[in-house]
Design goal:
The complex is a heterodimer of chains A (about 180) and B (about 150). Chain A has about 180 residues and is an alpha+beta fold. Chain A has three helices and ten strands, in the order ααβαβββββββββ. Chain A has helices at about 5-10, 15-70, 80-85; strands at about 75, 95, 95-105, 110-115, 120-125, 135, 140, 150-155, 155-165, 170-175. In chain A, the strands form two sheets. Chain A has a five-stranded antiparallel sheet. In chain A, strands 2, 7, 8, 9 and 10 form a five-stranded antiparallel sheet that branches. With about 150 residues, chain B is α+β, with helices and mostly antiparallel strands. Chain B is built from two helices and seven strands. Chain B has one domain. Classes of the chains: A alpha+beta (about 180), B alpha+beta (about 150).
């Protein structure tokens, strides 16, 4: 037989401490699970963001290689001012402006321009002249070991750049060589 | 007497086994969540590594395709090394370097010294990653490309 006091106690349900402990336990479990799910979502978001940034540069590299292959001529310049001042006299071995010259089927010559601007940290592609922008990459910097973005070596035109994303540093390089030189 | 015992058991609250089962259930959920988290991390890393490996092989192949014949690397030369990923370390604000890789070119020259000279080039990319999710997995991966042919003339 139970004493009246004990009987009253066991029939009274949970005490406040027991209820608080249960709440604490449930809170910890919920916190861990929600933290895990939040982490997974955040990680997925970062992966998507990095993939998008990487794809932009990959498309830029593909355009570079394709135009390099189809070009009838090319030249490098230290910067835009040098190119605009005298595109013949200011040709350089390395630089931050690259000009491919393509020939359309009707014989028309067209310029494809690539420019890295260290001030704005942008790498852009233009068609015709500097007013017709086709592609723009942001937060671009020089790759380690390369003082300029564009260079050439025995006819091999090349570009090296690094994108400083908020999550990852992304290195890229691209090569092209006009078929007639190749 | 018998009915009194049953009634007493019903009124006695939790047995020792009850909270233990509860704790076990919570532990299983927590361990499962953590493993799920690790697997998600691994899959994200793996996807990023695969994309980076593809990029490096594309860049290396482009180089060998478009470089002047005389600029091609020597047989067995390690012509590119580095790190696959450079994730930002939030604690230091600096980019880390993880998963080292190297690209080696195996070159077979035929008809050497003649106008018909050509080179068969096979690239081997070797890189190291974490062995997760299975600790016995080999952390070193090796990828070989198909042969690329370059003709001298």
């Amino acid at each position: 037989m139970l004493s009246p006091g004990l009987k009253h106690r066991v029939m009274a349900g949970f005490t406040l401490v027991e209820a608080l402990l249960a709440l604490l336990l449930a809170g910890v479990g919920t916190g861990i699970i929600s933290n895990t799910l939040t982490g997974i979502l955040r990680r997925s978001y970062i992966t998507i963001a990095v993939t998008r940034i990487s794809d932009e540069s990959e498309r830029f590299a593909a355009a570079f290689t394709q135009q390099g292959k189809m070009a009838v001529g090319w030249a490098l310049y230290p910067d835009r001012a040098a190119y605009l001042a005298d595109p013949v006299a200011n040709v350089a071995a390395v630089g931050n402006v690259l000009v491919f010259r393509d020939q359309l089927p009707d014989g028309t010559l067209i310029n494809e321009l690539y420019e890295f601007d260290p001030a704005t940290q942008t790498l852009a592609r233009y068609e015709g002249d500097f007013t017709q922008q086709r592609t723009l990459l942001n937060k671009v910097a020089f790759s380690t070991g390369y003082p300029t973005v564009f260079a050439q070596e025995l006819g091999l035109v090349q570009a090296h750049w690094t994108v400083q994303s908020p999550y990852e540093l992304l290195d890229f390089e691209s090569y092209g060589s006009p078929l007639r030189m190749h | 007497m018998h009915s009194t015992i049953i009634r007493r058991n019903r009124l006695a609250g939790f047995a020792l086994i009850d909270p233990l089962v509860g704790v076990l259930a919570v532990a299983i959920v927590v361990v499962g969540a953590l493993n799920f988290w690790r697997l998600a991390e691994y899959k994200c890393d793996k996807a990023r590594i695969d994309a980076r490996v593809t990029q490096i092989l594309r860049e290396s192949t482009d180089y060998l395709t478009y470089a002047a014949y005389d600029l091609l690397p020597a047989d067995g030369a390690e012509f590119r090394t580095g790190f696959l990923l450079h994730p930002l370390d939030p604690a230091t604000g600096a980019y880390k370097e993880i998963y080292p890789f190297s690209v080696i070119a195996a070159i077979t020259t035929t008809n050497a010294g003649t106008p018909a000279e050509e080179k068969q080039i096979v690239l081997t990319l070797t890189y190291n990653t974490n062995p997760e999710p299975v600790a016995t997995d080999n952390p070193q991966e090796t990828i070989r490309t198909n042969a690329l042919t370059r003709v001298k003339t």
